[in-house]
Amino acid sequence: TTTTTTTTTRTRRKFANANEFTRHVSWLARTGRDARAYEAVKESFEAFVEDARAASMCVSVALRAGDVDGARAMMRAHRTSCVSGRVSIVTLCAWARAEELGRGADRDAAARALLREATRAADDDDACDDVRLANAGCEAWIASGKFELAHGRVDKAQKCYKHAMEKYRTRAPASASIAAHAWAGLEARKKDATRARELFALAVEICPTHIANYTSWAAFELSRGKSEEARLLFRRGADAMQSDDVDGDSKQPQRPQDRDSRRRISMESALLSAWAALEGQLVLQAARSDEDGDASPEHARALFARACEREPKNIAGWLQWSELEEELARGNSHQGGVVIARRRVSNRRQLDVLHAGLKANPGDMRLEHARAMALKLNGDIEGAKSALLRLSERFSKSSHVWHALGTILQESGDFKGAIDAFERGAWASGKANLACVTAAAAAEFHGGQHGRARQLFVQGESIPRYLSTRRERAAHLRLWALLEKRVGSEEATRRLFIAATNEDRTDAATWLQWGQWEKRVNSINAARKVFSDGVKFGVHNGQYFVYQALATLEAEAGRADAARELFKQGCSAHPRSASLWLQWALFELSREDKEHAMRAIKVIESGVARAPPHMPLLELWLDLERERGNVDAAKAVEARLARLLSEQRYHGPVGREVRAPPQ
User: Fold this and answer.
1) Which helix (H) or strand (E) holds 286?
2) N or C: which end of the chain has fewer CB within 10 A?
3) Residue 141 in contact with residue 179, Cβ under 8 Å?
4) Helices and strands in the chain: count of H runs, count of E runs
5) Which residue has the higher pLDDT, 335 or 352?
6) Which of 139, 252, 117, 236 is closest to 662 using CA atoms?
7) Gap between the Cα atoms of 42 and 420, Å rounded
8) Cα 529 vs. chain centroid, distance in angstroms?
């Protein structure tokens, strides 16, 4: 009792009231200081246990820290402290989240009971004109709908959303519009695009100034492949922004302190960055297909600059901007994890963007990690390694950081250090990380430690599915198959390849490696079946190599027409794959008829026109022109080669063109 009293007294001297305490904890959480926020909560919760807003904030911070049991205990203490015995709607919803995260049938039942209590309290407040209470009531019904949807009760979720939208349409239009677009998302999941589109339109009609409505609707249209409709929606959202929105060239306004204004600014920044990301993707798609479009890198950059100026804490916006600059710097020559045109990349603009982002958000882990990866891309391996080592010291519980560090150590030849980093990352966060386990197993395998590698692969297979993605599980099984291919049995290898394609049939690398193995140990027909499935399904991670493998197999089997058709299909589907154009040209040269050289030159000319500069392709073209005695054509190709060599030798300095917004 004495200790509790002393702590409470000290806390009340530090924070004059619950509002001051809540603002302080909220600021810590918003600025990424989660550990400090949680320490403040643990130290001060008892002093403000009776305040509903403070209790809700404390629960949210505890959940972010992973302390579900602590969050539940806080809610029980808050209910006990309430003199009236009535807990606020916001607090009940926060408590329900804590119960739901605890997992188990009893926790789900407790969460449902709390949400029902919250919705009953919302209906009891029906006669009240308080906007905050109306918003809280509507959000309680939305939370109840999300809970029902998460448990597969679609009809009940739909009823909750409908009730929230209709009951609060006039009293809390912003919250009612959220209910409408939550309902629209449900209809989209049911594949009813027409109804979903109607509900998105209704959400905008209910509250035209709620910017998130436009962002959600645009995301839906993008998922349907309608990029032009999405662009129009982004423009409508930008037009709906309030009059105090800033232009890209104007000064940064003073950041508002009230919660609603901060939320509005966050939504506006999110819309602008999503629009910028779409414009950037359209620029890249136009470059890949050699088609002219109205999207431009300058427009995408201007939108990103406006988004990050509007909300400098928009980390996702900074990262999306950085990724666009990386893709533009690569010139789309790096696809599917394979470098097509081996040119050193000078990504000055990307580094500038990340420098500005870190100036606005000092020490942010995601931006620091992105900067390390950008340094690596720019050829500064030691700088990237040093940055990741510092990050691993500051964020020792981040599996993501340990995985990146292990990868760069492995690429530098430090296999022992890489394995240590991967194994630390495997359990750094307190939960298993399959990507780190897989990387550690692969490093042990390449180091010749086959027994230890198999132990790690078996360990990875036992990790619960909800802790990994399908792509991560497919990669784990594929690499395990490569181990068994070398030191195991054919039966185990084939079983693992089949399991990998069942997990993610879009991974072209699995089909390629499986087909190559079947060709060696089984038959051409078995390999042809695997490669054909890879061409059909393996759209990610190097599909052009599967085309090349199948075309080469057909050529070896004496089926020249089938091989030529596969090369044609592959180059049509992946026109920027210079290596595929090269293999097609070599295939034509191997035909040994009168027209073989001309056919090869025509293939090379098409490849040079559509793929990034590729020295082996140009060298083959030069040799063919010299053999034909075409001096002028040979000189032109030689000039192309000279320019390419000059570009590879030049590396521009890293500048500072992007200005960080004032804080």
Assistant:
1) helix 259-289
2) N
3) yes
4) 33, 2
5) 352
6) 252
7) 34
8) 33
Whole-angstrom distance, CA of residue 162 vs CA of residue 142: 9
| Residue ranges in 151-256 assigned as alpha helix (H) | 154-167, 173-189, 193-206, 212-223, 227-240
Q: Read off the pLDDT band of 140 (50, 70, 90).
A: confident
Provide the token pair at 421.
């980093």
pTM for this prediction: 0.73
Joined tokens for residue 142: 């939305």
Instruction: Give the pLDDT confidence of 151-185 residue by residue, as tens digits.
Output: 888 889 889 999 888 888 888 888 888 888 888 88
Neighbours of 358 (CB within 10 A): 17
Task: Dig out the tokens for 542 from the structure.
Answer: 């190097």
**Tokens 């296999």 -> residue:** 415
CA 477 to chain centre: 22
Would you state the pLDDT for residue 350? 93
The identity of residue 565, as a single letter, is: E
Would you state the structure tokens that stand for residue 149, as one six-digit string? Answer: 């949807």
Helix (H, G, I), strand (E, B) or coil at 190: coil
Burial class (CB in 10 A: 0-12, 13-18, 19+), 380: middle
pLDDT in tens, 223-237: 888 989 999 999 999
Q: State how far the Cα of 420 lies from the Cα of 637, in Å rounded to an integer.
A: 49
Structure tokens at 307: 């988004």
Residue whose C-alpha is closest to residue 144's, from 176, 174, 179: 179
Do residues 550 and 314 touch, judged by C-beta distance below 8 A? no
567 bridge partner residues:
none
Would you say 175 and 212 are in contact if contact means Cβ atoms under 8 Å apart? no
